[in-house]
Amino acid sequence: MRKNGTPEKVSKEKTAVHQRVEMHIPFLAGRPPRESNINHDDCTNLQIAFYTSRTLDEFLEVT
User: Which of 25, 20, 22 lies closest to 6, judged by CA?
Assistant: First the structure.
């Protein structure tokens, strides 16, 4: 296998034949559309909740 992830086959003529592999990465499809803009107050409230919560479950309950 080559460094870039493309598998390589050696044919009877001893030359490398490269096959193209389709790799689908779903998270690179892009961001979902936002319903509204995130303002500075929302970011501040999330930071406060993040730093004052003891556990992840508590943070999720608060937000």
Answer: 20
Is the pTM for the entire model greater than 0.70? no
Instruction: Tell me the C-alpha distance between 60 and 38, whole Å.
Output: 18
- Predicted confidence (pLDDT) per residue in 4-53, tens digit: 555 555 555 666 666 666 666 666 667 767 788 889 999 999 999 999 99
Alpha helices in the chain (DSSP H): 40-52, 56-62
For residues 49 and 59, the answer to whether their CB atoms sit within 8 Å is yes
Number of alpha carbons in the 13 Å side-chain half-sphere of residue 42: 4
Q: Residue 44: CA atoms inside 13 Å, Cβ hemisphere, count?
A: 3
